[in-house]
Write a structure and sequence with these properties.
With 613 residues, this protein is of the alpha/beta class. 40% of the residues lie in helices and 15% in strands. The chain folds into three domains: 220 residues, Glutamine Phosphoribosylpyrophosphate, subunit 1, domain 1, CATH 3.60.20.10; 204 residues, Rossmann fold, CATH 3.40.50.620; 64 residues, no CATH class. The longest helix has 19 residues.
Length: 613
């Protein structure tokens, strides 16, 4: 896990200039152990290293292949790299035991065909000095970031957007991203687009070749979500066993490290399964990081305590983080500086505190439960597709049991029945509500925005794809990466092993919800790793941060900003929303409007962004 930067130019003097400016200081937090760079003629590569595998200089980057032809800057972790050495490079004399060297020499042997063999997360660039061409790739789920910007006939790459700010006086807002964020809270779902018109994100599950002087990158997919036209598999004992084996393998493979490892534990099903697997199979010492809200109704300490009982207490160290001690002062500004783009709500700061605790404890690798909700249809967003599939297949008893036991609000049921019986009307209603939510957005902030197509709430495959690659997972992975790497910590997500998804896509959608219990496939296959108290949970809490209290603490700063920077056409409406914060009870939609509007104004200032006239 590291930070990478690159600059490709036909002008050798410009390459030398970039090298001399030493951009790597900007992303030193991603790789505090070592910073190095290479001038390769028309190509400059920089790397900041967080040493996880092969702590010696043998793992340093940028790394040059043994044949001397290729150079790599790599960010990520390949969990099966030792198996790939044995399979393809058994007779090769490696200099060290880093996964970077495995990837580099495998590319020498297989070229881009190697990508289908990799299990892990990555963003990488490889320079071929003979052909003078740059190879670029990113992992299947987009766990590791990689941005780029064309500057005439030159192109700059980097792990974070901060790297690009010194190359222009100002950035400009992507109005589609801004409108989507302000009206729906969605972000990170526009594929290669970011909040900034000038900065593009290289697409996930893709690769590309770029020659000197070319002004466009043409990515190709090496992997796509394996949607089955007809899913034939039920979820019987054989499938339970197979899924359990895949999850256990994924968790244990991600303990690969030459440094101590830890996990985040919330007391929910996902993180508790990871903990349970490690309690049974992992023989080394483990650090457990858990956030608590003493006295809060949403505190999950009791569930965490039940999970911890399953461990040999001599093999664990527990680190408790008290969320009640979060300082609200400058919280939003600090979080925005870390995230680089507006984010959903300040709850991500709780995760940031866990990463800070890991850093302070000397732990560089932390496993977390991200991705399970998206894979196993754990969100309200995905359940309509499961329920519709049950009715379609005539699974009426199963549907009725879910109807009785599922903790689903009236609004969700109304949307479900309308989408099932009156799909066109339901779609028009959603579009109308979205338009209403956009009414408070200044007209200058909506110029040239595109219309985003809404996915049907009862189409299972569309919903899973949207959850994994559009609405939910991309922004979770964004904040997970930034929070962890800001502290020099590698965050790993065992559920995002593509082999798990490929298996799940063979299972019939009607199997994904039983007796009102979300993620029933995950519960059934991994029940042995969970205490009864967690196994039977139907609620979902996650990290909780009091948004209203944070906004109230920043009331004066927000008021000044609204008065100074908001266009007159919406200033009155936004100030009226702001004044409601003085009340004890404030509707959530009002809190979010204030928070998101303030976030855009903060972004404009701190990232030096403007709306184009």
């Amino acid at each position: 896990m590291c930070g990478i930067a690159g600059f490709l130019s036909p002008h050798l003097s410009h390459v030398k200039s970039v090298q001399d400016r030493n951009d790597l200081e900007i992303i030193r937090h991603r790789g505090p152990d070592r910073q190095s760079d290479l001038n390769l003629g028309n190509m400059w590569m920089g790397h900041t290293r967080l040493s996880i595998l092969d702590l010696s200089s043998g793992g340093d980057q940028p790394m040059i292949s043994k044949c001397g032809r290729y150079s790599i800057a790599f960010n990520g972790e390949i969990y099966n790299h030792l198996d790939l050495r044995e399979k393809y490079l058994a007779d090769f004399q490696f200099r060290g035991h880093s996964d970077t060297e495995t990837v580099l020499e495998l590319f020498c042997l297989l070229g881009d065909n190697m990508l289908s063999e990799l299990v892990g997360m990555w963003a990488l660039i490889v320079w071929d000095k003979e052909q003078e061409v740059l190879f670029i790739s990113r992992d299947r789920f987009g766990q590791k970031p990689l941005y780029y910007q064309f500057l005439q006939d030159e192109v700059y790459f980097g792990s974070e957007i901060k790297l690009f700010l010194k190359f222009q006086n100002k950035l400009s807002f992507n109005t589609t991203a801004v409108s989507e964020y302000l009206s729906s809270g969605n972000y990170g779902h526009l594929g290669t687009e970011t909040f900034y018109n000038e900065i593009t994100q290289f697409p996930l599950a893709s690769f590309a070749y770029l020659k000197i002087g070319e002004k466009k990158i043409n990515p190709k997919k090496y992997w796509e979500i394996p949607v089955q036209t007809i899913r034939r598999k039920s979820f019987g004992q054989k499938e339970r066993q197979k899924l359990k084996e895949l999850i256990v393998e994924a968790v244990l493979s991600q303990t690969l490290a030459d440094v101590p490892i830890g996990i985040t534990l919330s007391g929910g099903i996902d993180s508790s399964i990871i903990a349970g697997i490690l309690a049974k199979y992992h023989t080394g010492h483990l650090h457990i990081f858990t956030a608590q809200n003493p006295g809060d109704p949403k505190d999950e300490s009791a569930y965490v305590a039940d999970v911890i009982k399953r461990f040999d207490q001599k093999r664990i160290t527990i680190h408790y983080v008290d969320l009640g001690k979060i300082s609200y002062e400058h919280l939003l500004e600090e979080s925005l500086d870390i995230q680089e783009e507006p984010f959903g709500d300040p709850s991500i700061s709780a995760h940031g505190l866990l990463m800070k605790a890991a850093k302070n404890s000397g732990i560089k690798v932390v496993l977390g439960g991200q991705g399970a909700d998206e894979l196993f249809a754990g969100y309200d967003h995905s359940l309509g597709g499961v329920l519709a599939a049950q009715l379609k297949r005539g699974k009426f008893r199963r549907f009725i049991r879910n109807f009785k036991n599922l903790h689903w609000g009236k609004a969700n049921w109304m949307k479900f029945w309308m989408a099932l019986l009156l799909p066109r009307m339901e779609k028009r209603l959603r579009e109308s509500r979205k338009s209403q939510r956009e009414e408070f957005i200044p007209s200058a902030w909506k110029v040239n925005k595109r219309k985003i197509t809404l996915v049907s709430p009862i189409k299972f495959d569309q919903l899973i794809n949207e959850s994994l690659f559009e609405i939910h997972l991309p922004h979770l992975l964004h904040y997970d990466d930034r929070n962890a790497m800001n502290e020099g910590v590698e965050g790993r997500t065992p559920f995002l092993d593509h082999r798990i998804l490929e298996f799940l896509m063979q299972i019939r959608p009607d199997e994904f919800l039983k007796d009102g219990k979300r993620k029933s496939l995950l519960r059934d296959s991994c029940s042995e790793f969970l205490p009864e108290s967690v196994l039977d949970r139907k609620d979902k809490i996650g990290f909780h941060t009091p948004l209203l209290a944070i906004l109230q603490s920043d009331f004066e700063k927000i008021s000044v900003r609204f008065n100074q920077d908001l266009p007159p056409e919406v200033r009155g409406k936004c100030l009226a929303d702001l004044n409601q914060l003085k009340n004890k009870v404030v509707p959530v939609e009002v809190q979010l409007r204030v928070y998101r509007t303030y976030s855009i104004l903060l972004t404009s200032e701190r990232m030096n962004v403007e709306f184009k006239a």
